[in-house]
Amino acid sequence: MSGSIVKFIVGSILLAAVCTVLYGGIQTGEEAIVVQASVSDEEPSSLGSMNVITVSSASATSVLHYNDSEYNNAPEMAVDGDESTSWQEGVEGQGSGESITLNFEKTGVKVIACRLGNWRDDWLYIANCRPKTMTLQIGSQSFDVEFTDAQIPHYIVLSDAVETDSLTFTVNEIYAGEDYNDCCISELTVYAG
Ligand SMILES: [Ca+2]
Question: Greater confidence, 14 or 75?
Answer without folding.
Answer: 75
